[in-house]
Amino acid sequence: MKTYIITGSTGIAAATIKLVARAGHAVFFVSRDEASCRSLADELNAESLLCGFHVADLTIPEAVAESVAVCVAQFGRIDALFNVAGISGRRFGDGPIHECSVEGWQTTFDNNAKTTFLMCREVLNQMLRQPVGENGLRGSIVNMASVLALSPEAGHFATHAYAASKGAIISLTCAMAAYYAPHKVRVNAVAPGLVRTPMSARAQNDPAILELMKTKQPLSEDLIAAEDVAEAALFLLSDRARTITGEILTVDGGWRVS
Questions:
Q1: 165, 179, 224, 237: which sits with the fewest CB atoms below 10 Å from its CB?
Q2: Backbone angles phi, psi at 200, to 5 degrees
Q3: β-strands 224-225, 195-196: how paired?
Q4: Beta bridge partners of 83
């Protein structure tokens, strides 16, 4: 049994948490949304699955440190981190650069790139103190990027702070992978296309975007299921990928090649 820590409690995070728990591993999740945390924990506890959670604002360094400490106190070790929590900054003023507000830019980076940095920093300090496991590793990290960092779509998804924050996460992932490989910690990222989650509610109700997905994501001809991204992330986090690091895995239904 391994211990996974996952940020977020809805959408892709919730789908991954359920997969991890049902695979027989301990899972600890962190989110600022207490209601969704409790609901998810109740669901897992009803199945007698091993889980814990902590409610925290992951843009605050002290809250991140406390979250990781609670996880370690409960389970003793962290084998895997999946940084899922993040936002679309559109409602804060994100958009094309000539229209993007300073608040939109900063809020988007705080909730996407800063939270990833803070969680990686805190968890890595724990992983580096841990002995190497039976698999020859100290731990595995997967960060949440986006296909928009690699393949922009100007018509409906011109949120440039979001794309830039996800591009920063890709660069961070590659730099971390190179540095921490000798320390037996793997670092990868997933870059989803348009996924059916609470964050994509606007797109789910836009007939033009739904029509675009028929050709932009031709494998699904629709939004991608959160479970499909969760399966890809779980593969990268697991021992099945124990010799993979520095990979940016697109889970996009064909977005990049359409």
A1: 179
A2: -100, 20
A3: parallel
A4: 143
Contact call for residues 124 and 185 (beta carbons, < 8 A): yes
Q: Per the structure block, which two tokens stand in for 213?
A: 């997905």
| Residue in this structure with the two tokens 């809020």, named with its chain if needed | 107
Residue 238, phi-psi category: left (phi > 0), alpha (psi -120 to 50), beta (remainder): beta
**CA separation (Å) from 37 to 14, 24, 34, 94, 251?**
9, 20, 5, 27, 26
**Residue 26, beta-bridge partner list:** 3
* The two structure tokens encoding residue 23: 């695979």
Integer angstrom CA distances of residue 48 from 25, 39, 204, 221: 12, 14, 34, 37
In this predicted structure, the answer to whether residue 49 has a pLDDT above a threshold of 90 is no
Helices 115-129 and 61-75: angle between axes, nearest 10 degrees:
40
Band (20; pLDDT cuts 50, 70, 90): very high
Active site residues: 162
DSSP designation for 143: E
What's the confidence (pLDDT) of residue 59?
98
Size (the chain), residues? 258
What residues form DSSP beta bridges with 6? Answer: 29, 82
